Amino acid sequence: MSIEEKIAGIHDPDLRDEVEAARGGFLFAQIVEHVLHRQRERDAQAAILNAAETRRAGLSRDQRRRDAVRLVIESEPALPSSLQHIHSVLALCGLPYRDPGPVREFSRTYGRNSLNLIAGRIKDPETGAFEPQGLPYGPKARLVLLHLCTEAVRQRSPTVKVAETLSGFMREMGFAVTGGERGTIRQFKEQLNRLAACSMQIGLWDGRDSATTLNVPPFRSLELWRSRAGEGDAEAGRTVRFDPEFYETLIRHALPVDIRAARAFSGSARKLDLLFWTGYRLRSLQRPLRLTWSNLHAQFGAENASIRSFRQAFKADLAHLREVFPRLPLVLDDGGLILHPADPSLLLVPPRPAAKRSRARA
């Protein structure tokens, strides 16, 4: 290839300027060769980016969000600021997926254990009357729990002032912060009220002749006060105080959750449940764990009457989780799901500090 042909292959303006500035010099031919090499590297990188953009253009909005989150997680390790926390019990005990309507009690069984929720009432700051609240449900209830548990862990306090932090969390999760009757602020705070009013029981059974019932109300109290004249929904006050026993166990058993992954699934209650549950299981798994389709249906199939319809939905949800974490050691087959022990670098969250200390002593 002649030197003029090489120069013709250089088209970026800044690189062309370098060539022209070197023209007539003793090392002109070598400089042209070097600049051409840089141009080809740029072109190759641009082709990769264009191919990625073309591929992403054919994806749905949710697929694009998951793809973007995967790229961020692969290129940027999780920092303390990107980790949220949720109580390990809540990672195993899913809330209703959809609005149960007038139903005041909800139960779910997972393996030998069960969760029971009973809807309650809260004192209205405008009327002074006890107002019945429905059962908490859907992705926003789970995100509210994630947010409140995180604030309690970060502040090392069982008392969280919601109005000071909820709007920022909503933005971080990708929700527009809007007021009004149908606004997102009202939707999130409705779930907060439902969570604060409900009572929770967890039943544990050994499979033979022993059973334990734990009364674990997440919150001891919820303080409400109406917004002042000229203020919007964002300023309406709420202070949550965790139940002391629940708070102490939260501090001891807080499950880290990568907020970037939670953002990818912020519109789906079952995918959030799958994210939390998988993170909990994989953190301490020492040997392969098999769950049958019946096990999975009991854990995640509240909306699917038949295992057949549940299997289709669960396969899609797991595929979406693997779009964000493609190396997760999860295998689906005709019998159900197999979880394999994983190297800490493949986990959703860092290994537990206790494990690090034991390795250091060894």
Detailed description of the structure:
There is one protein chain. α2 runs antiparallel to α3 (28-57), α6 (138-155) crosses α8 and α12 packs across α13. The chain has 14 helices and 14 strands. The protein is 47% helix and 19% strand. β4 (121-123) and β5 (130-132) form a beta hairpin. The protein is elongated, with a radius of gyration of 26 Å. The longest helix is centred in the N-terminal third of the chain and has 30 residues, at 28-57. By secondary structure, it is an alpha+beta fold.
Largest sheet: 4 strands, antiparallel
Shape: elongated
Number of helices: 14
Range of strand content? 15-25%
Roughly how many Å apart are the termini?
A: 62 Å
Q: Count the strands?
A: 14
Unreliable stretches, pLDDT < 50, 5 or more residues?
228-235, 354-362
Largest beta sheet: strand ordering: 2-3-7-8
Write the layout of secondary structure elements.
Layout: H1 3-8, H2 13-22, H3 28-57, H4 61-75, E1 83-87, H5 88-92, E2 105-110, E3 113-118, E4 121-123, E5 130-132, H6 138-155, E6 159-161, H7 166-172, H8 184-197, E7 199-205, E8 211-215, E9 219-225, E10 237-242, H9 244-252, E11 254-258, H10 259-264, H11 269-283, E12 289-292, H12 293-300, H13 307-324, E13 330-333, E14 336-339, H14 353-361
Antiparallel strand pairs: 1-11, 2-3, 3-7, 4-5, 6-10, 7-8, 9-10, 12-14, 13-14
Helix pairs in contact: 2-3, 4-13, 6-8, 6-11, 11-13, 12-13
